[in-house]
Amino acid sequence: MGGAATASPGHAAVWSQLSKARLSALVLLTTAVGYVVAPWPVGAEGWWPRLLWTCLGTGMAAASAAMLNQVAEKRRDALMRRTAGRPLPAGHARPVTVFVVGVVVGYTGCALLAMFSTVLAASFAAVNILLYVLLYTPLKPRTTLNTLVGAVTGAIPPVIGWTAATGTMAPGAWALFGILFVWQLPHFLALAWLYRADYLAGGFVMLPSLDPDGTATAQATLLTSLMLVPVGLLATLTGVAGFAYAGVALVSGLWMSWLALRFLQERSDARARKLFLASLAYLPILLGAMVLDRGSAVTTATPGEGVMILEVPGQ
Q1: Cβ–Cβ under 8 Å, residues 199 and 230
Q2: Please, are residues 69 and 137 in contact by the beta-carbon 8 Å criterion?
Q3: Cβ-count burial of 203 within 10 angstroms (0-12 exposed, 13-18 middle, 19+ buried)?
Q4: pTM for the full model?
Q5: Are 73 and 136 in contact (CB under 8 A)?
């Protein structure tokens, strides 16, 4: 433009964008929470090293999925304003290089999980990469159901954390999965409404892009926000968190539902933005309360054995 050369970002900035560092940070947060609230006493022998290896392996798996996704979506990303500046469409990285690095990083992350946490955690990480790259990514330009598949991939990280600590699934792990799955729906729908024109330009089939007046989008957002109330309480019902957490979950879920109702009443960008920002606050508030008010579910098994006996209050 005007003959002026655009400065290329440094290598660190390029790979930070390719690995979607901010999204990966959220993945690490939910993974760590899944690990911390799992029934293995905090501070027990080997607890800290395994947490660090779990976060490293999961972070690498998340970075791998992000890289491979961007390789697949290079052409579509170039069509959207918010993604046109990403390293691949902007020409700051070569697709072949990113693909190779993505595969190596993903394999390494899963291997670290298998060696230093549990094979079950590594399996979940590997499945998540495959779901993200081979199912979620191809579905995005085909059907609005891609949002549900994407929510599954976003709900698996806390399960990785739980299974890294215990070596087995349990009701508490499913509760964490359910909370993250449901939360992502109003969170993403609000974001997709704000970028509906961009998604349409890129050829992605998102509900807001096919919903000119926003009625269906707002209704889906309200329904899923309301679902946060009972789903959030599952952590208390399964012994993962206590009653103080339940109070936080109840108030937070109702707060999200109120903002979703306001969005239904007034389907504007301003209302959608308030809901989206609230969803960003909702998750750390809920997870923080969960960690601070850990439930009394305990394990009698050695971590990683895959044999666990849970004692839940009231049962």
Answers
A1: no
A2: yes
A3: middle
A4: 0.90
A5: no
Q: Any idea which residue has 């007034």 for tokens?
A: 266
Rounded to 5 degrees, φ, ψ at 204 are -90, 135
- For 185-226, give the DSSP string: HHHHHHHHHHTHHHHHHHT---GGGG-TT-HHHHHHHHHHHH
Give domain limits for the chain. 14-292
Quote the tokens at residue 71: 């390789």
Q: Which amino acid is at 61?
A: A
pLDDT of residue 43: 72
C-alpha to C-alpha distance for 228 and 249, rounded to whole angstroms: 8
CA distance linking residue 253 with residue 226, whole number of Å: 7
pLDDT digits (tens, 9 = 90+) for 60-97: 999 999 999 999 999 999 999 989 999 999 999 999 99
- Residues recorded for the chain: 315
* CA-based R_g, the chain, Å: 20
Closest to 81 measured CA to CA, from 199, 187, 180, 245? 199
Residues 138 and 34: their CA atoms lie apart, in Å, by 29
pLDDT in tens, 117-131: 999 999 999 999 999
* Secondary structure element (H or E) that encloses residue 108, with its range: helix 95-116
C-alpha 265: how far from its chain's center? Answer: 28
Q: How far apart are the first and last CA of the chain?
A: 69
Task: Looking at the structure, give the CATH architecture of the domain made up of residues 14-292.
Answer: Orthogonal Bundle (1.10)
Per residue in 36-58, is it b (16+ CB within 10 Å) or e — as a string? bbbbbeeeeeeeeebbebbbbbb
3-state helix, strand, coil in the chain (%, to 5): 70, 0, 30
Rounded CA-CA distance 244/4 in Å is 58
Assess whether pLDDT exceeds 60 at residue 302: no
